[in-house]
Amino acid sequence: MSEVSGNPGQMITDPAGVVIDGLHKSFGDVEVLKGIDMTVSPGQVVCLIGASGSGKSTLLRCVNRLEDPDAGRITVGQFEATHEDVNLDAMRRQIGMVFQQFNLFPHLSVLENCTITPRRVLKHSKDAAEEEALHHLELVGLKHLADRRPAQLSGGQQQRVAIARALTMQPSLMLFDEPTSALDPETVGEVLSIMRDLARAGMTMLVVTHEMGFAREVADRVVFLDNGLVVEEGPAHQVIGAPTQPRTQDFLRRVLNPLGE
């Protein structure tokens, strides 16, 4: 555990947990988050489920301060993310984020995509950054494609590169924002498999997903959001298998049985 610049006494813990208390966020006149309370303990996997527009992605972006909350408090490890004097650069070095779209640099090779941030932000040497990147590309099964450009890869391969890129920063927390939503159904499994391996290795993860099978198998807890509120939360087998709230029951019925049969 080491001290970093930022708020006095701020420390980095490994792995990082997340505590959200009274989180509110509006866009114009639309209140998207209406007082969210949630905890992700170190080493836990928490899946956020709910209909589009329920506030899941906004919540995730607030954790990384890609969106500024209107009210409430968020801590990531020992960083108070919502403090006016927080060192966001130092905090974000502990967080890996994977988006719906892969956000790879099209003009760079796979290897260059995975080394650019460690070299520029962490000031790693070229050799050290490449060694770390190749290690993580091997973990996601793509070391043999290190010299290719993103356009030469499938969607699933690009998303696996995005995961490897996030891991090169050696994060304590991984945020996933519907990482399989833009993928062909045949490639979804390869990305979920990597995420499952990360979970089994003890990575703290907060995942927005519509993949109920993944949530049931991998998540320690599932949180159902609706209209900016936490409606139900608990162990995955309980929330997905035997939800108690009518709104959760209706949502899962539609998701798990879309034809209504």
Can you walk me through this structure?
There is one protein chain. The chain is of the alpha/beta class and 261 residues long. It has a domain at 13-103 and 173-256: P-loop containing nucleotide triphosphate hydrolases (Rossmann fold, 3-Layer(aba) Sandwich), CATH 3.40.50.300. The protein contains nine helices and twelve strands. Helix 6 (185-200) links the parallel strand 9 (173-177) and strand 10. Helix 3 (110-120) packs parallel to helix 5, helix 4 packs across helix 5 (155-167) and helix 5 (155-167) runs parallel beside helix 6 (185-200). It is an enzyme of class 7 (translocase). GO terms for molecular function: ATP binding; ATP hydrolysis activity; ATPase-coupled polar amino acid-transporter activity.
Rg value: 18 Å
Q: Please identify the top-level CATH class of the domain at 13-103 and 173-256.
A: Alpha Beta
- Sketch the major β-sheet: 6 strands, mixed
Structural class: alpha/beta
Task: Put the structure in a nutshell.
This protein has 261 residues and is an alpha/beta fold. The protein is 35% helix and 25% strand.
Question: Helices and strands in order, then pairings?
Answer:
Blueprint lengths: L1 E2 L7 E2 L5 E10 L2 E11 L4 E5 L6 H8 L7 E6 L2 E2 L7 H5 L2 E4 L11 H11 L5 H14 L15 H13 L5 E5 L7 H16 L3 E5 L3 H7 L2 E6 L2 E6 L1 H6 L4 H11 L5
Parallel strand pairs: 5-10, 5-11, 8-9, 9-10
Antiparallel strand pairs: 1-2, 3-4, 3-6, 6-7, 11-12
Helix pairs in contact: 3-4, 3-5, 4-5, 5-6
Pfam families: ABC_tran
Family: Belongs to the ABC transporter superfamily.
InterPro entries: AAA+_ATPase, ABC_ATPase_HisP-typ, ABC_transporter-like_ATP-bd, ABC_transporter-like_CS, MetN_ABC_transporter-like, P-loop_NTPase
